Amino acid sequence: MNRRTAIRNCFFVTAGVALIPSCMQNNDGGKPSQVYNKIPITAKHELMMAELADTIIPGGETPGAKEVDAHLFSLVMVNDCFSPDEQQQFLKGMDEFEALCKQSFSKNFAALNETQRKSILEKVVTMSSDKNNAAVQFYQKSKGLILQGFTNSKYYMTKVRVYEMVPGRFHGCVPVKSVKA
Amino acid sequence: MGNNIQNTTFDAIVIGSGISGGWAAKEFCDKGLKTLVLERGRDVKHLKDYPTTNMNPWEFQHRGQLPYDLTKENPVISKCYAFKEDATHFFVKDKEHEYVQEKPFDWIRGYQVGGKSIMWARQTQRWSQYDFEGPARDGFAVDWPIRYNDIAPWYSYVEKFAGISGNKDGLDILPDGEFLPADELNCVENHFKDHVADKYNDRHVIYGRCAHLTQPTELHLQQGRGQCQKRNLCQRGCPFGGYFNSNSSTLPWAEKTGNLTLRPHSVVHSIIYDEAKGKATGVKVIDAETKEEIEFFAPVIFVNAAAYNTNLILLNSISKRFPQGLGNDSGLLGKYVAFHNYRAKVSAKFNGLSESTTDGRRPTGAYMPRFRNVKKQETDFLRGYAIGVYAGRGSYTDTSGVGSTLKESLLAEPNHGSWNISAGMMGETIPKITNTVSLDPVKKDEWGIPQLKISIEYDDNDEKMIKDFFAEMTTMFTEAGYTDIKTADSKQAPGLDIHEMGGVRMGNDPTTSLLNKWHQLHSCPNVFVTDGACMTSTSTQNPSLTYMAFTARAVDYAVDQLKKGELKA
Fold first, then answer.
1. Within 13 A of B121's CA, how many CA atoms are on the CB side?
2. What ipTM does the predicted assembly reach?
């Protein structure tokens, strides 16, 4: 992950908290970057999702999930497309996931270094036989959403696997080698 | 077009602007009649009112998915395969227009200029002699008052204008038409076709016929339409006019004649029957926005409101002469309604042809015309089913890892999966007197019109047909060497096929039918019905092409009768 970006984001959020306390109302995690009308998402949650996205699909030479805002897409999906039960489960899982980080390293996920983050994800994967574990569910849902956000981003669909809006052709039987899948 | 129409008298009134209403408008206007088209919904202009047509996938906030609240508030329409983030604006939401489900029925509607022709599936197979002869041979419903030969020239007529792609397959069960070139079957569909041809004399796998301009003719270019670019985003409305809908084709054509008056936001309350003259004289409309009541008059009225709404309008057209609804001397109006059975699907995998795949997209796939009970009765159920067959090869990416491993996998070329093939049943259902639509005695809509009460269900014949389809399809897939064969019965309610038909059926005998062979109400001959409501039986084909042909034929007859003074105002 890009450490400098992470630090900058941390700083930005911290500054935000310091500057606009009146906007926080009931949440003490800072004002989020977009409106969530159904789930109490704060800037802190957004940061956590951004860092989770960056850990799952890191940036670098080419954009990763965080650079294409897959974390924000994920939270929009939770807000708009999840049922109330699924939302509660997601939020509960998010808390438990953070608790796991605190338990292991006495820090939030966003504050962990790369090695620590990976070890958390590995730990969650080892717990994945426990289907009812909220942290596991949160991680699995989040990974799915982050993958969806990344692979459906403008970057991915114009630079990696190019979406053709107007193919203008159909060939029913061509050698596999001649086309991109 | 504004809704402040000064003139209230026209040469013809067409109720509805969907696939059949658009055709009625075009034909009347072409023949020089001043024509009023009444549409209950808003106007949708070709190109201008297709807001999502050029949007990229990433420009949709939910990447095509529907928000939870929308699906929760709209349990019926959310079941429709085309009700996705790019086309929700073309479908009626559940709460906007309520109806009474005496038995579960998913009523999928599009209330706007162009109706459902904007989002239809565009499959256009002709009926054959065996379809029209069905009820008489098998002793259900009533005999159709027409035969294939009556309608064949009109199929040709509408096919040339609409633009239908297909192959000349030379099958008497699915007659050839006026075709533009067809797209290709893919490797596995051809593989299946060859296996079926080897094994069965009476079963055929062909390329489905569909309303796409694979090679536009002068007539299509005159409509301002161009070649299909194989986007497969048709439900949004096509920026090329590559598929047929009322908005890009029949309606602008009618408008160019100068004879068309199109009035959106016009909810038809009823047809006005003049007791003294002994005929219908016009239509009572309620403006959807102002709730103002307005009457329009014409010597001839075409009802093309979409099958069940056509029933509703006629049932609500009460007069001293017709206390049970217009033309309803037989008491059968709203009865013998039917649909297509789309519940059953069989899918399989094919591990062969692993060196081949497809490139680009196409608007349809393979089609198997009905092979059960065609020439004679041979099973323990009546009639049969057509089958839509699609094969495709997906790709997959390993997403099990995280970090750089996952990213490398996502950036690498994906892997080709094995071929999948699926077959969807399109079953004929038998119209029954117990399957009905009627006016709810209590519930009314926003415009004071009774709500429609729908009472339709599957029967034993449908269940037997599904069993037969599962068995036959499993056998055919097994013979072709496919594996992992799975049968699935969606148990979906009637309606989701979006092929509702009947209730104002055609027939020779006024005591057992509503319409004569020219689509006129037996007892009120200046009112014509040429949408799905006129269907005596359903057969297996996607019905829209047949409605188009019926409409063009009936308008031709109506204008002829007007000229002869038979249908005077």
1. 19
2. 0.92
